[in-house]
Amino acid sequence: MEHPIIEGSQYKQGGGRAWLVWGLCTIFVLYVFGAQTIFAVVQGSIQSSLSLNLAQIALVGSVYTWAFAVCQFFSGPILDNFGSRKSMIPAVALAVAGVWLYATAQNLPMLLLAQVVMALGAVFGFVGAGYAGGIWFGMANFGLMFGLVETSSSVASAFEQQLTALALKYITWRELMEGIGVLGLVLLAGVVLWVRNPVPVKPQKANVVGKVFSDLSVFLKSPQHWICGVWGGITFGINLAVGVIWAPHIMTAKGFDMAVSNWAASLVWLGLGVGSLIWPKWTDWVHSRKKPAQIGIVIQLSTLAALIYLPGDVSAVVFLLLWFINGVGSANEMNAFQIAADMVPPSLVGASAAFVNGLMFIIGGILMNVPAQLLGAHDQHAAYAYLPYIGVLALALVLAFVQKESHPSAVHGKA
């Protein structure tokens, strides 16, 4: 099947150049995800070598999350106004610079600076890959290409910690970060050589900063964007919380050993990867964004409730299968990006993704720490500590029912 020529360009939509650009942007997503995954594994070594306390290590991790969340809101409008090339080259350069600062850090201020610099670049990762999918493959395939990005990052997340732990048996954490820095320079060269829009973007010479804030204000004033951003943030936040921290804790509290418990987290990510291939295409098959959103939240809510409250004498296979299904259900978060993009013109697709992703990280940062606050110093992994997750997922379900249908065929059919 021939791919149509993109209007105003010599490139074919969905052709070889499209896959090259999208592939480089997706590799950047894996790069920044990998850099943060490594921190989760090497934080003990960093704490020891730099003589930091636990509170300082926690500060290093939280600085990245909050810098990322705040800056994320501006990445989309910048992409919309300047295009992939002028946005992604500085973004990759900043992320690589952050990695090198990390590798050479001698104290806490240098570590904090490294995290901020890395976050400034990383905010263009996921949104930049989604933007590239939209402009190079057409808006009809925006959700599918975004889903492929999520699948790639999810599958990588399932194995990166194990690979990092293996590497640390042979090299130091500084040598590991230096190696990641070298790979980043290779990626930067690829982005400089090949990443660009199919049709050059001509930014307005007038107040560019004002244009960025003007684009952002479109979403701040839109109740429907807030609704999909909040329920999407809840599904994402709980997926992040169980995948990064709480799935192994829930399993060990039921008497399972660490090997089985760690598989729970990996299966959450694998489920997310599989689900990210299903949800975007399914919404097109059924010509609805709203109904799949509701079904996805029900799956996530029901499986999490079962995982929390089932007794520990149930087979480990049942628990692991439920964690996988939970990950599949949480991939419904991709639907929030599609809904946000449906309600704006193509010129604002980057800003729509950034707005939703920014809300997801803010809500996710809050939800990750809720069980820790309830469990306190006793570290008794009681089921009540996870009850707020059931409550906020119920809220997400209500919001999904309030959400207006946005699928183009359904909307045009009503017109």
From TrEMBL:
One of its GO terms (biological process) is phosphate ion transmembrane transport. It comes from the Bacteria. The chain crosses the membrane at residues 20-42, 54-75, 87-105, 112-137, 176-195, 226-248, 260-280, 348-370, 382-402. PROSITE patterns: MFS. Residues 20-406 form the Major facilitator superfamily (MFS) profile domain. Keywords: Membrane, Transmembrane, Transmembrane helix. Pfam families: MFS_1. It is found in: Endomembrane system. GO terms for molecular function: glucose 6-phosphate:phosphate antiporter activity. It is a multi-pass membrane protein. One of its GO terms (cellular component) is endomembrane system. InterPro entries: MFS, MFS_dom, MFS_trans_sf, OPA_Antiporter. PANTHER family: GLUCOSE-6-PHOSPHATE EXCHANGER SLC37A4. This is MFS transporter. It comes from Crenobacter intestini. The lineage of its organism: Bacteria, Pseudomonadati, Pseudomonadota, Betaproteobacteria, Neisseriales.
